[in-house]
Amino acid sequence: MQGILLADKPKGWTSFDVVNYVRRIVATQEGKKPKNCKVGHTGTLDPLATGLLVLLVGKEYTRKATELTKLDKTYQVTMRLGQTSTTGDEEGEKTVVSDTTPTETAVLEALAAFQGPLMQVPPAFSAMKINGQRAYKLARNGQAVEMEARPVTIYRNELMKYDYPLVTFTSEVGSGTYIRSLVEDLGKTLGTGAYMADLRRSMVGPFSLDQAVQVEGLTPELLEKSLRP
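Below the sequence we write its predicted structure tokens.
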């Protein structure tokens, strides 16, 4: 089996969980041990996030991973105003910041302010490496994590729905952009604090979530049928 598999990652699964799940199916189909089957992904999703995960199946395709990791991405984001989270999402410890209700105009202006090339500080709870170790592992061990700002590009932030304290918007971003950091920056700009309540990835470059298969219940036959060049 070789090709690109577009998968809809379920909530609670890590990206590695999905890779392992697909690898076991490939191994069974090819009569090999899972460790002898090449399966990888082109960009991780947080465990609490859902949506499009682009998987590469077979040695010929896993070699192309670096070519696909830099693709632009589109997300459907829900942020909760009024509180912050130690992890930037639902998983962390919450702190109430403000009960002020921003106007829709203020929300629109904040979304517009974070478009174009800008500098962004990645979240401490991220997969970025610091001195060879994942930042989230250091943070979970209670170690201070100093993250440096780096250039990112946000092409579009479009408000979809505002029903305080929840703001739902579409964000189209360049590679390396952290939505949790964007949400935290929006919360600071609005003076209310904010954390990411929900995240769903809908596009990766030319690949769309509409073309993805559900991971749970994936069969060898469906997997083989769904692989694309």
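The domain at 73-204 is CATH 3.30.2350.10 (Pseudouridine synthase).
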